[in-house]
């Protein structure tokens, strides 16, 4: 049993009832209760809510309830393109987690009830959400080192109102709940009364549908994790093995793989596009939130966006010894490996010249082939554009090495002579 538990307390009717009920139950078990209040600063009465809750908690504590009050005022404002609701929710949970950690609480109780769950399912469906969205709010979740629990998710609102009347509790009303600019308010005032009039059991049935969706999501996730165990890994998604899965499993696995990689929610349009274009593709790239997806050698990988930095100018470097030569300006390193044959003579690498492509460079792939321009060699070998970065390496004016292609055949040293081969690795590869 925990020594302390926290309750997210807005001062509204639901969280007031939950805070009071939790404190009464905790008193009998010697558990301390911490009321966590977030001052959003979005409505003029926010200061009054904070003072109401502070005074209420102090009064209950004097009456013998094991209560402690904490409050945080949010700073900043939603960025352009970010909805007020999304910003407030994100910042609220971050503030609640910070206060819970400071108070030594690993468990935070949230006051959403059955009608909130039913409303959430409807809103998610109206937004075109999939199965995970239709699962609505989880009864229990772990994130930020905190266990978040909604103990009243199966309770009707009428039961909470009855508790408030029985204990003569006072709460504050959020005037923003009447603002039709918010989707939940429109649903609550314009749609819900008509829905319940036509379907009296709507609340219970919608909440049950959310619960069944959550069970289905858990089962689906187990299958996705099993598929990804064979498809994924640090080398990226194995697209050949992925293509062999049934279509429904392909989509689910792809969405699960992307969800673990992308810094933002996975756009359904991206999942659908990949599901259509990946089968049969050889080398391609797709824009994605925070970067791009790259397909090469049968592996799909995510590359985070990096600021555009012009390549460095020409420089000279001693590459006549084995090791990894990190080149920060180029965003990677040249790996120099000693070999018995098939390498370039060490003497030609002592004053190697590194420079970016300028156009017109000639490169010979094999001893029995003719030199061709570097661009055509890349195209013939189907080397993707992102694998062509890094410096060209010259020795005595002769092109020795090109990233993605390797050593020029004209510079290969005879066996028995000290020699090295080169490999280019981008940072993070």
Write structural notes for this entry.
It is a single chain. With 429 residues, this protein is an alpha+beta fold. The protein folds into three domains: 4-175, 3-Layer(aba) Sandwich (Rossmann fold); 232-304, Uridine Diphospho-n-acetylenolpyruvylglucosamine Reductase, domain 3 (2-Layer Sandwich), CATH 3.30.465; 315-426, no CATH class. The chain has 13 helices and 21 strands. The chain has a six-stranded mixed β-sheet with strand order 3-2-1-4-6-5, with helices on both faces. A hairpin with a 2-residue loop joins β18 and β19. The chain starts with a strand and ends with a strand.
Topology:
Blueprint: E1 4-8, H1 13-27, E2 32-39, H2 46-62, E3 67-73, H3 84-102, E4 107-109, H4 114-126, H5 131-134, E5 140-143, E6 146-149, H6 157-166, H7 183-198, H8 202-231, E7 237-238, H9 239-243, H10 247-261, H11 268-277, E8 284-288, E9 291-296, E10 299-304, E11 315-317, E12 323-327, E13 332-339, E14 344-345, H12 346-349, E15 352-355, E16 362-363, E17 372-373, H13 374-380, E18 392-395, E19 398-402, E20 406-407, E21 419-426
Parallel strand pairs: 1-2, 1-4, 2-3, 4-6
Antiparallel strand pairs: 5-6, 7-10, 8-9, 9-10, 11-15, 12-13, 13-21, 14-21, 15-18, 16-17, 18-19, 19-20
Helix pairs in contact: 1-6, 4-8, 8-10, 10-11
Enzyme class: ligase
Keywords: ATP-binding, Cytoplasm, Ligase, Nucleotide-binding, tRNA processing
Binding site for ATP: 10-15
């Amino acid at each position: 049993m925990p020594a302390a538990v926290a309750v997210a307390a807005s001062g509204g009717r639901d969280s007031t009832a939950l805070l009071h009920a939790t404190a009464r139950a905790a008193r009998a078990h010697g558990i301390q209760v911490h009321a966590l209040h977030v001052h959003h600063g979005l409505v003029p009465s926010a200061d009054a809510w904070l003072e109401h809750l502070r005074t209420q908690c102090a009064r209950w504590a004097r009456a013998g309830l094991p209560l402690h009050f904490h409050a945080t005022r949010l700073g900043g404002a939603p960025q352009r393109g970010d909805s007020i609701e999304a910003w407030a929710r994100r910042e609220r949970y971050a503030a609640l987690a910070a206060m819970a950690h400071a108070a030594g609480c690993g468990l935070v109780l949230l006051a959403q009830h059955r009608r909130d769950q039913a409303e959430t399912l409807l809103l998610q469906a109206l937004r075109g959400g999939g199965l995970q969205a239709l699962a609505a709010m989880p009864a229990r979740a772990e994130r930020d080192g905190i266990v978040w629990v909604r103990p009243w998710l199966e309770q009707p609102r009428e039961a909470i109102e009855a508790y408030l009347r029985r204990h003569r509790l006072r709460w504050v009303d959020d005037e923003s709940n009447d603002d039709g600019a918010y989707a939940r308010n429109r649903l609550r005032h314009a749609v819900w009364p008509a829905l319940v009039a036509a379907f009296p059991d709507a609340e219970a049935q919608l909440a049950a549908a959310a619960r069944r969706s959550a069970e289905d999501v858990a089962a689906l996730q187990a299958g996705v994790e099993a598929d990804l165990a064979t498809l994924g890994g640090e080398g990226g998604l194995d697209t050949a093995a992925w293509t062999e899965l049934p279509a429904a499993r392909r989509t689910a696995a792809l969405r699960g793989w992307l969800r673990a990689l992308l810094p933002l929610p996975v756009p359904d349009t991206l999942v659908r596009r990949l599901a259509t274009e990946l089968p049969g593709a050889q080398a391609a790239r797709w824009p994605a939130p925070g970067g791009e997806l790259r397909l090469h050698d049968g592996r799909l990988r995510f590359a985070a966006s990096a600021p555009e930095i012009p390549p460095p100018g020409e420089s000279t470097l001693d590459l006549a010894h084995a090791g990894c030569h990190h080149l920060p300006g180029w965003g990677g390193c040249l790996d120099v490996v000693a070999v018995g044959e098939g390498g370039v003579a060490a003497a030609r690498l002592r004053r190697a010249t590194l420079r970016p492509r300028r156009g017109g460079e000639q490169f010979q792939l094999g001893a029995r082939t003719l030199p061709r321009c570097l661009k055509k060699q890349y195209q013939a070998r189907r080397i993707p554009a992102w694998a062509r970065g890094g410096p060209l390496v010259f020795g005595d004016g002769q092109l020795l090495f090109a990233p993605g292609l390797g050593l020029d055949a004209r510079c290969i040293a005879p066996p028995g002579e000290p020699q090295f081969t080169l490999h280019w690795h981008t940072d993070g590869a």
